[in-house]
Amino acid sequence: MKIFTSKHELSGYLETLKEKGRTIGFVPTMGALHQGHLSLIEIAARNTDHVVCSIFVNPTQFNDPKDLEKYPRPIDADIAKLEQVDCDILFLPTVQEMYSGDEKWSIDLGYLERILEGRFRPGHYQGVTQIVKKLFDVVQPNKAFFGQKDYQQVKVIMKLVELYSLPVEIVMCPILREEDGLAMSSRNIHLSPSERNEALALSESLRRTRENYSMKQIAELQIEAVNFLHSSEGVELEYFEICNAETLLPAESKEEPGLVALVAAKVGHTRLIDNIIIK
Ligand code: PAF
């Protein structure tokens, strides 16, 4: 695996591959890699000729400086994991390499950045789109792969691609779960053993919603999930919503073409999100 820390050197190298007609798959990450990330790389490797993974803990997408500070950065372990899968290139820039100073960024994401995650993490998707645009400009991938776990993020990035008419296909890849249902996440390492157990309420609420889907109305499913989460020990619910899978607006009826249930909650000091496509 080749490792680049400079944008210029990476784009120069990728240019030589593109000149040979090779396709580039891109998996942007913030590191602390787990099996979920590695599955994105495997999917990228099956769908493109060369896979670039980036590891960059992007400061502009954190609302809470403490969250940024405590974000795990096990870089040696990450490199070892990437060596085990079909990752050809790792891009590992510094903050100075990605941000030249006091930069301004503003993109009109409309209601998409005010709902769900946006209500609890104002400005988060401005930071995400800022860095993803920069990374796309350097890598210029044919396809970019993102996990369904950050469902709203995928929709936001599709909006970015649309607004800038970027020639990249966004591929959403399935959530990977631990055997007991917990969605894999870099944040799970912050959970104590008892919190890890309490965190199962999130995936359980989603599982029950999907299981009961054919028997109940949307409002009923939503109330039951919210009640279940409120009564779950150690879980501080932020939202549980059943939404139109395309627009992410609250689902009004079962007639909508696709439905997704999304949940966010704090367990101890750790904020977790999860979702399930129910239709
Ligand atoms: O999903 C993430 O890890 C980050 O939001 C991303 C897309 C790498 C941008 O920093």
What does this structure look like?
It contains eleven helices and nine strands. It has 279 residues and is of the alpha/beta class. The protein has two domains: 172 residues, Rossmann fold (3-Layer(aba) Sandwich), CATH 3.40.50.620; 86 residues, 2-Layer Sandwich (Pantoate--beta-alanine Ligase, Chain: A,domain 2), CATH 3.30.1300. The strands form two sheets. The protein has a six-stranded parallel beta sheet with strand order 1-4-3-2-5-6, sandwiched between helices. A three-stranded antiparallel beta sheet has the order 7-8-9. Helix 7 packs across helix 8 and helix 10 runs antiparallel to helix 11. The chain is globular. The mean pLDDT is 97. The structure holds pantoate. The site of pantoate has 10 residues, from strand 2 and helix 7.
Name the descriptors.
279 residues, 40% helix, six-stranded parallel sheet, 11 helices, globular, 20% strand, Pantoate--beta-alanine Ligase, Chain: A,domain 2, 9 strands, three-stranded antiparallel sheet, alpha/beta, binds pantoate, Rossmann fold
| Secondary-structure element pattern, one letter each | EHEHEHHEHHHEHEHHHEEE
The CATH topology of the largest domain is what?
Rossmann fold
Helical percent range? 25-40%
Sketch the major β-sheet.
6 strands, parallel
Number of strands: 9
- Helical stretch tally: 11
The CATH architecture of the largest domain is: 3-Layer(aba) Sandwich
Instruction: Compute the CA-based radius of gyration.
Output: 19 Å
Which sequence of strands runs across the widest sheet?
A: 1-4-3-2-5-6
Q: State mean pLDDT (0 to 100 scale).
A: 97
Beta-strand portion reads 15-25%
CATH homologous superfamily (4th level) name of the largest domain: HUPs
